[in-house]
Amino acid sequence: MDFNFEKEMVFGRKHINKLDFNKSKYDFIPILQELFKTEQLNMLHTQQTKDYEVFKKFGSDSNTEFHETFYTYLKSEKGKAIKKIYDKFIREIIFPYLGLNKALVQQFPTIRFQLPNNIAVARKHIDSEFHPVGEINFSYAFTDMFESNTIWIEKMPRSENYVPIIMQSGECTSFNANLCTHYNKINKTGKTRVSMDFRILPLNYYNNTESKQTVTTNMKYVEGGYYKIIEL
């Protein structure tokens, strides 16, 4: 089934749109609470053992001690638990929301930690600088996302009219980061933002000869690389 990105990924439809689902049925939060041994993930910075200057380069912004802990867990046997919920969430919530029964799906979401007085992503950008055109973005909040500890994104491409993506913990929002410029402000909330984002590429936008590669791992945006195929 084809997806009409140009029609759907606009403000008022699926750009900056909060999904409606049973949060308790697709709850990723307890897994991270157990991993970091705290029920207050928004205070994760109190566990910090290293100092980080404000991130200015892609790669450094995904290389903190918290990222290391999470990705070590993800590669372990225990990591199968969160992967199972992710695949279930894609099949039962994301695909029906998009009207798809088969698509390329990011292998596993990218985890984000926005510490106080820092940012989560190094600079203002649009994803299609690096990613294939046609990807649909989603962000899942482990902690409340608000004010200066969230994503600020254009309501329309090249409009320079930026709005924050506001979410409470356990919520998920779809947005068009593929074509809309987005960035982080310096986090002045005093709270750590923990979230994960993932991307869906409908098959009608897939080019298996795509030459673009991820910035940090040089992984190609193809099935078996950055993506996996999920089918209902």
Walk me through what this model shows:
This protein has 232 residues and is α+β, with helices and mostly antiparallel strands. The protein has a single domain, classed as Jelly Rolls (Sandwich). Helix content is 18%, strand content 20%. It is built from four helices and ten strands. Strands 1, 2, 3, 4, 7, 9 and 10 form a seven-stranded antiparallel sheet that branches. Strands 6-5-8 form a three-stranded antiparallel sheet, with no helix packed on it. Strand 5 and strand 6 form a beta hairpin. The protein is globular and about 45 Å long. The termini are close together. The relative contact order is 0.22.
Which descriptors apply to this entry?
232 residues; Jelly Rolls; seven-stranded antiparallel beta sheet; three-stranded antiparallel beta sheet; 18% helix
Question: Which secondary structure elements does this structure contain, and how are they paired or packed?
Answer:
Layout lengths: L4 H4 L8 E2 L10 H7 L29 H11 L4 H19 L3 E5 L3 E5 L21 E6 L9 E4 L7 E3 L7 E4 L6 E3 L8 E10 L24 E5 L1
Antiparallel strand pairs: 1-7, 2-9, 2-10, 3-9, 4-7, 4-9, 5-6, 5-8
Strand content: 15-25%
How would a crystallographer describe the biggest sheet?
Answer: 7 strands, antiparallel
Number of domains: 1
Say what the CATH topology is.
Answer: Jelly Rolls
CATH structural architecture: Sandwich
CATH top level assignment: Mainly Beta
Proportion of helical residues: 10-25%
Number of DSSP helical runs: 4
Q: Give the integer mean of the pLDDT values.
A: 95
Q: What is the string of helix and strand elements? A: HEHHHEEEEEEEEE
User: Shape, please?
Assistant: globular
- Rg (CA only): 17 Å
